[in-house]
Write the structure tokens for this entry.
Amino acid sequence: MKIPVTRGRIGSWRYYIGVMNFKQISESVTSSINQLFTATCLDELLQRELTSNYESIKRYLLKEKDRFFNAIILALYDGDPQWLEIEFRGEEQEFTNVGFLQLSGREIIFPVDGQHRVAGIIEAVKENHELEREQVPVIFIAHENSDLGRRKTRKLFSTLNRRAKPVGQNENIALDEDDVCAIITRDLVQDFDLFKDKNVVNSLGKQIPVKNESAFTSLITLYQCIDSIVSWYLSKEKITGKKYKEYLLYRPSEEKIENLRTVVFDIMQEFVNNTNVLRDFLDDKNDNRAARYRNREGGNLLFRPIALTEYFNAALILMDNGYSCKSAFSSLSSISLNLADIPWRGFLWDGTKMINRVSRPVIRDLLLYMIDRTLISSKDYERLIKVYSASLNVDESLAKNILKSING
């Protein structure tokens, strides 16, 4: 297949602008972008509601007479693409950026920008073969199928989609090459046992689908835990507030990324080493292993996203108060994490489902209170009593006595 193109360059990208007809798109281009990563849960999420979105594009192509698309950006690798230059000589200059892109047919072509348009085209021509002759502008870029190449193409994908519309949090986690928390989250789901394979689920929000019996947590929840650790660590360098938010917008040096990655992985390893329920979970090889810890009876606090993030926040506060990382997680693991027990019953668990109206800082304060009352301020203690008494529908004096009975 030879495609007439104009060759250009911008930044580090060499690109080729041409046109493809819908038949060529449907036969040569895949709408999948799973070449950008390796982790299974990222593969699933980056389809980005592809089915519902491409249906509207298909309908547009089939019904709209004045249809038009902007250029689809296609990444190209493998096979044997050749640039065949045509030289034109004018009166004052030579033109050497016009020619043909010759493809062998063995190339892998996928959209960096336009996956829904590609899917819509593929489905539309199935219903109306006359559309095969229609043409769409395309921009080819070279994709390198390596870690560095995927990182570069992911960054381009993220940048292009940010310009078009806000990128969802899941997509940011999967693609962003500037946000160090996203980078480390991807490393964890690929390299850390607790978060590998089906242990992390991609869902539209941070909650875990009711029918899921295999995942420890959700991708967004894991990212939020990493965000807590990274912001805690960088606060020691006075990178807080607005400065921290700006920090996530620009890729740090490789040395800094490796340093933060080491900090996060070390903390996660202590989390696993000093939490019995996690070791039991990892030892269980059944597909429904999470059902023991997240079920109709409530299960374990750590398997609920709303609580997991605050568990890490509590651990970080303990470390700020002289606890080692090991002793912080060991202390947290020693308190009752069974949702059917006091103090969680009636507070986070109503007997059939989670109570999600409780603010996250109050969950963190309750965890700290159960270890040592002095770890929270008087103001936070009074807030805890008010929220706890309201949740159980008892007066504050009784709420204090209940909490006092479980205070470690």
Observations:
- Strands lie at 2-10, 13-21, 72-77, 82-89, 94-102, 108-113, 135-142, 200-201, 217-218.
- The first helix runs from residue 22 to 28.
- The chain has 16 helices and nine strands.
